[in-house]
Write a structure and sequence with these properties.
The chain is mainly alpha-helical. 54% of the residues lie in helices and 7% in strands. The strands form two sheets. Strands 1-2-3 form a three-stranded parallel sheet. Strands 4-5 form a two-stranded parallel sheet. Bound molecules: adenosine-5'-diphosphate and tryptophan (TRP). The site of tryptophan (TRP) has 14 residues, from strand 1 and helix 8.
Length: 328
């Protein structure tokens, strides 16, 4: 029997999750729990780089767990936990930091983007990729499903793992691979830029009613008149429709764009209906889960223990190989 691959990914609990997170990451996470030994965690240490407020961080963490469970993550099939339940992560991050050239962090695209968008340039933000590398390596992960924007961080992880192995022993860490689904690599936001919490251009997965309608209606389009034929491939509304609709519906709507007499308002209404239908079951499930707050705690407690036990098995030989003294 071949050994099951370890799949790992993390998501920052730094706000309500949006459909970019869903199609770029969560959907794959949920599908992949069937394919291997899957570990998914709430990257709350990482979130401290941008959220310094106890209530906010705690509430966001619960919200993300509820979102994931409602969308189909099953704690019987995967390990769902909080990063802060595995202190071995920060221990390994320190060791990796001693192997990281400053110049490697200076090339970090995400750091530059985040500072440009107004985040404080703290050391935690600067060394974020090192902690992310530790997250991945501490479970000897094989596959890391993420969005395109995380590619550089996975490359850094591979580099650091190789370096630690060369210096301290070839079998200490596993070199991971990223898993990126190309067709939905970047989901556009309502303004056409990459959908992101930090751009304020998101449609959230659990938005409903008026909020959802307002956001869909605000999607930016060009000003081709209603009667004229339109190019679906350059339209933000159509890019989103493609994520939610089946093949036949997509072909049908593309035909209407090209024929003319079909306005962006029509397309937005179709998109709204598609989003409502797509997430209807998850919405109902989330409302049910909200009634049982103890459940989230139980899931995190059990997941945390499993993750910690596994991390300790990887960390112990590294401590020993580096010559770190421990009296207990
Ligand atoms: P945000 O940009 O909103 O802060 P995060 O950086 O927390 O989102 O991303 C969480 C996960 O969702 C990552 O794996 C990321 O690659 C993916 N993701 C985020 N936004 C998008 C998007 N617009 N399209 C595709 N994937 C995305
Ligand atoms: N940086 C990731 C993001 O912003 C979150 C993350 C932290 C992560 N640690 C990770 C993703 C480890 C995959 C593996 O989305």
């Amino acid at each position: 029997m071949t050994k099951k691959k370890t799949i790992l990914s993390g998501i920052q609990p730094s706000g309500r999750l949006h459909i970019g997170n869903y199609f770029g990451a969560m959907k794959q996470h949920i599908a992949m729990q069937e394919e291997g030994d899957a570990f998914y965690f709430l990257a709350n240490y990482h979130s401290l780089t941008s959220i310094q407020n106890k209530e906010k961080l705690e509430n966001n963490t619960r919200d993300v767990v509820l979102d994931y469970l409602a969308l189909g993550l099953d704690p019987k099939k995967c390990t769902l936990f909080a990063q802060s339940d595995v202190p071995q992560t920060t221990e390994l991050a320190w060791i990796l930091g001693t192997l990281t050239p400053v110049s490697m962090m200076e090339k970090g695209v995400a750091y530059k983007d985040k500072v440009a968008s107004g985040l404080s340039p703290n050391i935690g933000l600067f060394t974020y990729p090192i902690l992310q590398a530790a997250d991945i390596l501490i479970y000897r992960s094989n596959i890391v499903p993420v969005g395109e924007d995380q590619k550089q961080n996975i490359e850094i992880t591979r580099d650091l793992a190789g370096k630690l192995n060369r210096i301290y022993g070839e079998d200490l860490l596993t070199i991971p691979e990223e898993h990126i689904v190309k067709s939905v690599a970047t989901v556009p936001g309502v303004d056409g830029r990459k959908m992101s919490k930090s751009y304020g251009n998101t449609i959230n997965i659990f938005d409903e009613g008026k909020t959802l309608k307002k956001k869909v209606m605000s999607i930016e389009t060009d000003s081709v008149p209603l009667d004229d034929p339109k190019d679906p491939e350059t339209c933000n509304v159509f890019a989103l429709i493609k994520l939610f609709a089946d093949k036949e519906t997509i072909t049908n709507i593309a035909g209407k764009y090209k024929a003319g007499g079909y306005g962006y308002g029509h397309a937005k209404k179709e998109l709204l209906g598609l989003i409502e239908e797509y997430f209807a079951d998850a919405r109902a499930k989330r409302k049910e889960l909200e009634q049982n707050p103890g459940y989230v705690n139980d899931v995190l407690k059990e997941g945390g223990k499993k993750a910690r036990d596994r991390a300790e098995q990887v960390m112990e030989p590294i401590r020993s190989a580096t010559g770190l003294f421990r009296s207990y």
